[in-house]
Amino acid sequence: MGIVYLSIPLMSTAILTVYAYIQRKYWLYLVSAISMLLIKETSLIVLGSILLYEIFVSLSKKEKIIAILKRTSVLAIPVIPLAAWFLAHYLTTGYVFKTARVFINKGNFFSIFFKNFMKHFIYDSSIENFNRTNWIILIFIIVFLANSIKRKLEYEKLFLLIIILNVTLFSLTDDLPRYFLITFPFFLLIGARASVSLTEQVKGKGRIFLLLAIISLYVGLSVMNYHGTRQTDGWRLESNMEYLDMVRLHVKVCEFIQKKHESAWVMTNDPLNIALQKPWYGYVDKPMKVIDFRTLERVEDTIIVWSAQSNFGPVVNFMHKNIQSLKQIREFFYKGKRVRIFKFAQ
After folding, report:
1. Which end of the chain is more exposed for a tag (fewer CB within 10 A), N or C?
2. What angle do the packed helices 206-223 and 133-147 form, to 10 degrees?
3. Residues 330, 305: contact at Cβ < 8 Å?
4. CB 127: neighbour CB atoms within 10 A?
5. Secondary structure of the chain in HEC code, one letter for each residue
6. Per residue in 52-72, pLDDT tens?
7. pLDDT (mean) for 84-99
8. Are residues 130 and 193 in the same domain?
9. Rg of the chain over CA atoms, in angstroms?
10. pTM, entire model
11. Could you tell me which residue, 54 or 200, shows the higher pLDDT?
């Protein structure tokens, strides 16, 4: 359950939508764009980027306003099914979004924007995860853009627009590393374009050797992102394959609880609370009795599961407050990650 994020199909349909737009395959565009928006509404940034790009390009060609409006209206058709879904949701629940959950970031917009770009877009996917590829790509892109000021860029502008609007969106609302996954294919495409552009400035056979060196560097550094041994909270593990370590640990924990403490109440937090209650995720054979850390402080015959994946404020506060009255009965450890199981001392 921790691997199949909405961000994966969202990224795939976003790529297909942009590809269909570039190739002017309108039926494919409509199908992929509608699918993309219905997977997650935040993908409006991709559709919005396409519309803005189309308008800017058309205006630069000095086309008639009516022709521009007709074309952008066709491109905006995928918004209609999304609006219908929002309406159905409103009629069912009485709200579209819970206001308190939409614009929740507080602080200076520019500082949050910079944090999102550097931390989630570059830092979370590089230094913390043993992968420097994004830094190298970013440097190549900066050099490429600096050399291309007087040249006519093609779809790089569209790709940059998608990245900038995505970072802007999550500077206003909640943000997690996985929310930026949709932008990485476009970032890598610009990086590839930048690499080729830079190698074209080298004469003779040296161009081929330089391009091969860049490819080897990309691949080598990317492979380093597949494994790690950090002991940290789960959100930081989402941006590389270390999350599989937490999945492995949680499977063992759920098997242990189901076998040794079948009748006990389990106090834990997301995502273990869901895994223990929903057998179809594959962690347990039947639903277990689960208490959230925020619900109450103590229930008889309760075991407490503290996972690195669930290192949230309420969990940390609860553990610090009650640690003296808890007795550890089991610990699961794997590659720097651990899950600890406690009971209240008698």
Report:
1. C
2. 140
3. no
4. 12
5. CCCCCCHHHHHHHHHHHHHHHHHCCHHHHHHHHHHHHHHCHHHHHHHHHHHHHHHHHHHHCCCCHHHHHHHHHHHCCCHHHHHHHHHHHHHHHCCCCCHHHCCCCCCCHHHHHHHHHHHHHHHCCCHHHCCCHHHHHHHHHHHHHHHCCCCCCCCHHHHHHHHHHHHHHHHHCCCCHHHHHHHHHHHHHHHHHHHHHHHCCCCCCHHHHHHHHHHHHHHHHHHHHHCCCCCCCHHHHCCCCCHHHHHHHHHHHHHHHHHHCCCCEEEECCCHHHHHHCHHHCCCCCCCEEEECCCCCCCCCEEEEEEHHHCCHHHHHHHHHHHHHEEEEEEEEECCEEEEEEEECC
6. 999 999 998 888 999 999 999
7. 85
8. yes
9. 24
10. 0.73
11. 54
Greatest distance between any 2 Cα atoms in the chain:
80
| Weakest-pLDDT range from 149-163, 186-200, 232-246 | 232-246
* Structural domain containing residue 174: 101-226
Final residue in a domain of this structure, among 226, 242, 269: 226
Q: Are residues 89 and 107 in the same domain?
A: no
Q: Are residues 106 and 205 in the same domain?
A: yes
Shared domain for 222 and 199, answered yes or no, is yes
Our count of domains for the chain comes to 3
CA 8 – CA 14 distance, rounded (Å):
10
Instruction: At 184, list the tokens.
Output: 């990485």
Count the neighbouring beta carbons within 10 Å of the beta carbon of residue 305.
Answer: 27
pLDDT of residue 1: 36
Name residue, tokens 């206003």.
172
Q: Assess whether 167 and 87 both reside in one domain.
A: no
Out of 92-106, 141-155, 222-236, 328-342, which region has the weakest mean confidence (pLDDT)?
Answer: 222-236
**Is 228 within 8 Å of 336 (Cβ atoms)?**
yes
Per-residue tokens: 181: 């996954």
Same domain for 88 and 10: yes
What's the whole-number average pLDDT of the chain?
A: 82
Q: Residue 3 above 50 pLDDT?
A: no
